[in-house]
Target: F-box/RNI-like superfamily protein
Amino acid sequence: MDTLPEPILFDILSRLDSADVTRLRLTSNTFETLYPELRSINLQCTFKWFLHSSARVSNSSNSSQTVTPFKTVVINLISDLRVVESVRIGITNTLRYLPDGYFDEKEDDLHLTDVDFIMEWLPRVSETLKSLSITDFFIQSVRRRTNVLFLISVYCQNLVDLELKYAWLFTPTLNPMPMLTTLTLEQVRFSDKLLNELNECFPNLQVLNLIDISGLVYPIIRLLNLKSFHFAVNSWLALTIVTPNLLFLKLECSRTGKLFVEAPALSEFHLTLDKAGTFSIKMFENLNTLVLESLHLDFILSVFPVTYSVENLTLESREWTNGAIGESVYDLGKVFSIFPNTSSLCIKSRDFSELDPSFNLIGLKTLCVYLAVVDPIVIFSSIASVMDECICLSEVSVVIKHDSAGDAYQSFIAKCMAYWPLMKWKWGTWSEGREDTWLSF
Model:
């Protein structure tokens, strides 16, 4: 490999994580020479590394059982680079789901948002750093509040992309970071209950992801340049979103209080709710794609004003969720009176026959139906009703739950294809947590 041109070798190194790069440095003088020119660090602590870390192998005379502590390796790797533009460090998923007996909460060797550790390397890379991602070790970080966000705001004025996960963030007055355009906070305890600091210090955010955040009370998002916002929490008392240039919005919540959304440029909206509170949604004149998921679809639909711009609509009633309790039956006639220009409809329901097909939507061109059970006679009747009402329909997809896709599904497929041979059919199966599987005939 040493015979390859240096630009190719450099490109190879740039695509590898830092652990693999370190191994190559030990086997090749060329790689060792090129390493200081790299501009990124990508290092994840694995389960094997965790077990053999020298911090956990005490009084051992066998040096082969120990490895250099993770934090030390991070600092050494950064020290060997001339310019650092990207740092991504974290803990692999396997470490997060181990039994409690593996851990000692008093240790901090994998507490990656620890201020002392951060200060050992952040100041030296701050001027050139553009992307930073830290996934902390939840067992060690959950009870340790950190000022890491404040330090980042002080030192990293050129940062563009920031991601922090599994940390308890203390947010005193932060320094403005006008260059930051992407921010992701996930599994984070947050002291900024209203998100005032976030709005003031990151004014030019274009992408904001707040996933499983605790500590919020009345979050308010007022960001003029925001284009994409994903907000997923267990509950909120009141959520206000005022974003004039927002294009994509995804809201996920088990239990909501008040919701106010003002986003006139919005083109794609995903809303997932288990129990809805008070809504106030202004007209979305540019909304093209809408995804609604709830046990109370009828109520949520009643909140929306008539919206002529929606063409792609997905409705998921969530009856198949274990322990789900709610009234999810809704009237398709009502749906199309609210979104009269829908041309592509996707329905995810336990039983397609529960839905009232007494509607007339000439413009519907594609239909996708997800089902949990198969009753060939009942479903065929429902499909036939849709075919009669939607004269412009050209494509129908039927996706059944994997463990229900037996002989009954096969006979249903054959019957549909025989009755409507000119229709473009797509058949598939679905299962929780996996991608859909499409069948070929």
Summary: The chain has a mean pLDDT of 85. The CA atoms of residues 13 and 329 lie 55 Å apart.
